[in-house]
Amino acid sequence: MLTIKDLQVTIQDEKQNIKPILRGVNLSIKPGEVHAIMGPNGSGKSTLANVLAGRDEYQVTNGVVTLNGEDLLALEPEERAARGLFLAFQYPTEIPGVNNMYFLRTALNELRKRNGLPPLDAADFLMLVKSKIREVGLDEAFLHRAVNEGFSGGEKKRNEVLQMMMLEPSFIILDETDSGLDIDALQMVGRCVNSLRSATRSILVVTHYQRLLDYIQPDVVHVMANGKILRSGDKTLAHELEAKGYGWLESEMKS
Amino acid sequence: MNELAMIPAWLQKSGGDKTWSSAPTWLTDFRRKQWDAFLKNGLPTRKDERWKYTDLSFLTNKNFSTAARVDPYLLRDVINQHRLQRGESILLVCVNGYFMETLSDIAKLPRQVIACSMGKALQHHADIVRANWPDHIDAQKYPFASLNAAMFEDGLFLSLPDDCEINMPVHLLSLVFGDEEFIAQPLHMIVLGQNSKLTLAEECFSHAVQAYMMNSVMMMTVGNHAKLDVCKIQQEGRNAVHMANIFITQKRHSQVSFTNFSSGSLFARDDLVVKLLEPGADCHTSGFYRLRSDGQYVDYHIDIDHAAPHSNSEMLYKGILDKKSRAVFNGRLFVEKDAQKILAYQANHNLLLSSEAEVYSKPELEIYADDVKCKHGATTGQIDQEALFYMRSRGIDKEEAMDILLRGFAEEVMQRVTHPGIKMRIQETMY
User: Fold this and answer.
1) Phi-psi category of B68—alpha, beta or left, where left has phi over 0 and alpha has psi -120 to 50?
2) pTM
3) C-beta of residue B326 within 8 angstroms of C-beta of residue B358
4) Cα torsion through A233, A238, A242, A246, rounded to 10
5) ipTM of the complex as predicted
6) Which residues of chain A lie closer than 8 angstroms to B393, CB-CB?
């Protein structure tokens, strides 16, 4: 489904210095698989997630990324979304003045249009959104507010999950969706993601902690540090990391 | 003679000797005084703080003739196209500054309401006109109001007696029709008696592509406990000059909301002058400008004078500027010495879509009382790239996402318009 080959990415800071962030990432995710990427702060996890979604402040200096055989990096962010890619953001953006329900409906109907489907009529949309918002544990009042404006950290994350549930993407990236969540919210994220698991849908979970992986059982766990994937394994790798910390792997790699 | 030289010849020729055979002496005197004051002060220059960013060279480059009346028969189609959709409204029509009774829905107004031309009002309702006429217009501050006062020939007179509510919006369509380079100078007067209520949508519209000048004055008096809701929609012709001076006087516990939308004309200058004369007066002013073309200019000056204690006011102005356009916002709040317990708010926020667009934002406070709560702020920024990316990542294409963001930016002002027909008309013009 998704193949990343030798991906190298830099960013230009305020002083115009060019800083490498990803230094040759290789990753292959098959349909139906759930992969987790763990790693310390600054290892490049979020950069990878954002580059995949199409954020343009990064420069891709080398490498190839394909989604279902198509060159992903050549596509605009909205085209990537239309191909089924979805990133649940670590820090969802507030959009004052734009009604949350209107936003959801526009996004859903734009995706339907790109995929040759007729727009959902108002009544059907309302039914759908009301059932999904219940699943993510947000009050319906949040539909009538501006997108993420004044939402708490947890509410923003729930709103991300609501979008995911509404848009039903085929390739989902969760960028530290667990950070700042309480146990109830964590369980909700797990429940929602698991409800979407299928043989044709792949999921990439970016996280610091093993905790979320108790709810979303990964097929493969990768450890990332310093812009590279240091090691890949099954879910026991996550437990090992939790017990020994990241320092263990990093020192092992150096020796 | 030096000052005189600053006033273009066409303007000097056209003014000064305007009299109606039927005009009362007090008005003839007033007009003469305003004309003399206008001549004495000359046209404002950029040395004048209030006109610092204003380029008035079109006044000397052009030779505007006085706009003429138009045969109503020619206008039926364009006027019917301009009726507000969604919900009922009462249409009153002015063309080239002249009130057109035969094109207006006079019969739909409550019987006790007076709606007629200023000419007729001076004949039949001179007492009301005089009682609501200002003692004085400061020709130095509001030179184009002085010019208008000296030269106006017509306009709408609308008077609601005490306890009169008009339960649907009055739609004042101010149309400019013709292909000559003319100047139209209507003077409108609107009087609200005690406990009366009016929603007014003033729409300034033209298909004309030539340069013309609209120089209008609106005088409004809002009686005790009366409620006035005004929505102005400015979409003059694309080479037009739009000058407007709006004077509002508010009495005890009156409430006014004034929202100004501007997207038309090449040049627009609005001076909104509000006097909160008596305690409990409350005035919310807001505006939204959308400039799209090179050389387009909009200039909003708002003067709110808190002359009485326990009065509240608000200014919320926002704008989106593209290409090489320019906007000026100057909100001036004046709190007089004995006007205690004042609440006031002042804000101007701008979004620039091009690196060549310019905004000059100047919120001003002049406070002589000590028990006053006043907040103010101004910002100028660009489109939020984070929000744009967020929306695109959800499948909304760039153009649509931009459009949604711009609408979102305008929403704070837009939501002040509640009538669906008026709202729809504004949305048609703004996006």
Assistant:
1) beta
2) 0.88
3) yes
4) 50
5) 0.96
6) 53-54, 77-78, 80-81, 86-87
